[in-house]
Amino acid sequence: MANQPESRSVFRTCTLCEATCGIEVRVENGLATRVTGDRRDPFSRGHICPKAHGLLDLQRDPDRLRQPVRRTPGGWVQIGWDEAYDLAADGLARVRDAGGVDAIGLYRGNPTVHDMASLLYWNVVTQAIPTHNRFSAGSVDTWPRYVQAGSMFGGMLHIPVPDIERTDHLLIFGANPVVSNGSLMTAPDIKKRLAEIRSRGGKIVVIDPRRTETADVADEHHFIAPGADAAFVLAMIHTLFAENRVNPGRCADFVRGFDELPELVRPYSPEAVEHACGIAADTTRRLAREFASAPTAAAYGRMGTCVQEFGTLACWAIELLNIVTGNLDRPGGAMFSRPAVALDFAVSLGEGGVEFGRHTSRAGGHDEIFGEYPVVALAEEIETPGDGQIRALMTIAGNPVRSFPNSARLSRALETLEFMVALDFYINETTRHADLIIPPTSPFEHATYDVALNHFAIRNVAKLSPPALEPEPGTRPIWRTLLEISKRMMGLRELPVEQVDSIVLSRFAAQAIAASDLAGIVGPEDALVQLGDDPGPMRLLDLLLRTGPHGDGFGQREGGLTLDALKQSTHGLDLGALEPALPEKLATHSGAIELAPARITSDLPRLADWISQRSSERPAPSAAAGGHFTLIGRRDIRSMNSWLHNLPSLAKGKSRCTLALHPRDAERLGLADGDRVRVTGRVGQLEVPVEISERLMPGVVSLPHGWGHDLPGTGLSTASKRPGVNSNEITDDSALDVPSGASVLNGIPVQIAAHPGA
Ligand SMILES: Nc1nc2c(c(=O)[nH]1)N[C@H]1C(S)=C(S)[C@@H](COP(=O)(O)OP(=O)(O)OC[C@H]3O[C@@H](n4cnc5c(=O)[nH]c(N)nc54)[C@H](O)[C@@H]3O)O[C@H]1N2
Ligand SMILES: Nc1nc2c(c(=O)[nH]1)N[C@H]1C(S)=C(S)[C@@H](COP(=O)(O)OP(=O)(O)OC[C@H]3O[C@@H](n4cnc5c(=O)[nH]c(N)nc54)[C@H](O)[C@@H]3O)O[C@H]1N2
Ligand code: SF4
Ligand SMILES: [Mo]
Q: How many Å apart are CA 154 and CA 147, to the nearest integer?
């Protein structure tokens, strides 16, 4: 049958966003020809969004690198893999040998979260290059939430998610899941799941300075001034104490610091924060009462409550609201997942609890947070001479020149590096600075499993994504690349990668078994025998599945999960609804939920100052005076941060990189739809067309990030035709959420000048 045309379906997960939708990839004669939603996926039930089709474009994008390239005076030149590994390691080692290991910076970008090999094998890199100068997209994203979860529950992955399948009341702050498809809440088909809340009689309330697409499917929406969430939620809690409506339910047995709460929230009466928030005191009281009296309720916040001026305080207040109303860890409230692969052991930072600021950055004095510095320290550390100055950088799956605030400063800093290597498949705004780019295989060409995202899933699920296609000839999987570079950095160039991988596996095995209930029952040696000889991420996955809470315990638990069992479940497994997990799950020193962690509460005076300053501003801060506005971000269903703009199927349609503002503001500035304005922030300015929209709170303007694909030296032929502007040209790298060091990307003061060219 050798000449029979090949036609088959491969069922896997879409790796573009956190929703983890099941997809069916049609493969004909070795080419991927179609992507559709997998109706038999028990979690996503056939749902996909337009981005899934982009996976086909990504697969065939001629701009996508398949081979390593090296920068030469005459342009990029393709080179062999071993040459690339040698160059990468030599470049990094040279800088390390001259200036110490801290002279190397490491940056891990967002897509690593969607690829288990990039995530797990990056740990090997950080062992081979034990620099303090580690960075990730976390500090322009989730850090406030991690710091809050770490401080209150004892681990960065201790993130409760709204139990949206059972809740009666969902209160959403600064998240737009209808467009983002959910974040720190893995919930495919979210729009339908939200509709189900309402069809069973529940209620959805959205608090956001923009009337979002999520607000369109909610019962109520209220504008809030950017940055005011902590104040607002503390006022809700203030109301509940004042009206004797506080009842933590079963959590009462394992909370610490409860008696401090009335005093902490005392200054935040609804009237005291009314002006700063832009929400009437009566509304605050009513929303608090409704939340507390709903049979079950869950409060949830995301980007709008993280990368803002009081991100950690906002995350903390939202969690407190869940706790003091008895909604934490109960069905219908905010619950913890029990993923089949539990990574807690890999990210746990010592016995009990987490510690922040174990070291601080050299130039800016920023605290270390979960082993990393905030991204704003990267440019500082490159620019500032002296011992430990960063002179070389390795990035994986990141585009910091589009994702960091004050990105122009970073771009200039990267030009001064002695050496840079990027692990990426595009020559984009960041990787164009590299001496060397080494590409991963495309998402269709390797197997993966959601080791990270299942931690935030609203049901316990497990699904293996097999490769849809054979890797193109001459490509190399990322796990090999990471091991090849790591072993060279450890002086083990001649050691075969398979052997390095066995060492990695045995380390993981020892850790995973020690952290599981198999400690003392299953010996690491027995486990290694059962795991076999095939190197690579799938064997690691087998280990993690089998030692995990749903695993077979290497024969100890009959019927438990193994890699083989998962391979049989083509469409994925539903392991059930979330279940109460406390107090067992808590990993704090005290063994209790810390309600008033000092790192967080010590930021309250800053909030109090902000409120009083805002309250003294007349008219209300929300109604912009003159050309002064507050800038927030925005996401679009056909974008993914900076990196899908080169895919033709997603690039079409009307331009989405516009500055949206309220009709009243437009009128005051004499602006019509499509007019150009100049937007000026502390660190820069840009020109952009406006889009007049009733959705914006007066005084607030919104611009999406990730655009600006018109820089010289990039290789993005489709994206560069409609480049858009880069919002991080004007976001301020000195604006940080204090407890976490995360950047403030929402709530930037800007000035707008109409008709700059006139
Ligand atoms: N289509 C698409 N999907 C994506 C992405 C994408 O780029 N495109 N990116 C992915 C990534 S990396 C992430 S992290 C997630 C993010 O997922 P989400 O957080 O759900 O997405 P955002 O659109 O950033 O939503 C933030 C909301 O906060 C609001 N906001 C801004 N400032 C404030 C404030 O001070 N208070 C309040 N209450 N609200 C505020 C904004 O108006 C916006 O509606 O999305 C993921 N999914
Ligand atoms: N102003 C403003 N700035 C923001 C945000 C905002 O809302 N407003 N959002 C922030 C958020 S939430 C995030 S997560 C960050 C994202 O910040 P980054 O992670 O730095 O940037 P991305 O735009 O996601 O770029 C991803 C890069 O990974 C590459 N890539 C894609 N898939 C793979 C893969 O499988 N392997 C490898 N090796 N490379 C791959 C792409 O080519 C691209 O270069 O941006 C942040 N920046
Ligand atoms: S929502 Fe869209 S991008 Fe996200 S996983 Fe589903 S199909 Fe992929
Ligand atoms: Mo993100």
A: 9
Q: What is the pLDDT of residue 626?
A: 73
Q: Are 353 and 589 in contact (CB under 8 A)?
A: yes
pLDDT for position 556: 96
Domain count of the fold of the chain? 3
Q: Do 190 and 258 belong to one domain?
A: yes
Share of residues in the chain with pLDDT > 70 (%): 97
Asked if residue 317 has its Cβ within 6 Å of ligand 1, the reply is no
Cite the DSSP H helix spans in 443-520.
478-489, 497-514
Vertex 640: Cα angle to 638 and 641 (nearest 5): 130
Closest ligand 1 atom number to CA of residue 636: 1
Other Cβ atoms within 10 Å of 350 Cβ, number? 10
**Residue 619 binned pLDDT confidence (cut-offs 50, 70, 90):** low
Q: What number of CA atoms fall less than 13 Å from residue 169's CA on the CB side?
A: 16
CA of 19 to the centre of ligand 3 (A): 6
The range of the structural domain enclosing residue 673 comes to 623-754
CB distance 509 to ligand 3 below 6 Å: no
- The pick from 136, 176, 207, 744 for probing ligand 1's pocket by mutation, whose C-beta has the most ligand atoms within 8 angstroms, reads 176
CA dihedral 379, 380, 383, 384 (to 10 degrees): -160
Q: How far apart are CA 438 and CA 423, in angstroms?
A: 5
Could you tell me if 433 and 415 are in contact, meaning their C-beta atoms sit under 8 angstroms apart? yes
- Closest ligand 1 atom to 207 CA: 38
Predicted TM-score (pTM) of this structure: 0.97
Q: Bridge-partner residues for 221, per DSSP?
A: 206
pLDDT digits (tens, 9 = 90+) for 180-204: 999 999 999 999 999 999 999 999 9
Q: Decide: 139 and 153 in contact? Cβ < 8 Å.
A: no
Residue 126's H or E segment, with its range, is: helix 116-128
Query: Are both 208 and 319 inside the same structural domain?
Result: yes
From the CA of 512, how far away is ligand 2's center (Å)? Answer: 29
Tracing tokens 């902000």 back to the chain, one arrives at 610
Task: Please give the single-letter amino acid code of residue 573.
Answer: L
Return the ligand number nearest the Cα of 394. Answer: 2
- Bridge-based pairing of strands 255-256 and 593-594 is parallel
Q: Say whether both 629 and 556 belong to one domain.
A: no
Cα→Cα distances 742→133, 376, 633, 696, Å: 16, 9, 15, 25
- Complete DSSP assignment for 80-98: -HHHHHHHHHHHHHHHHHH
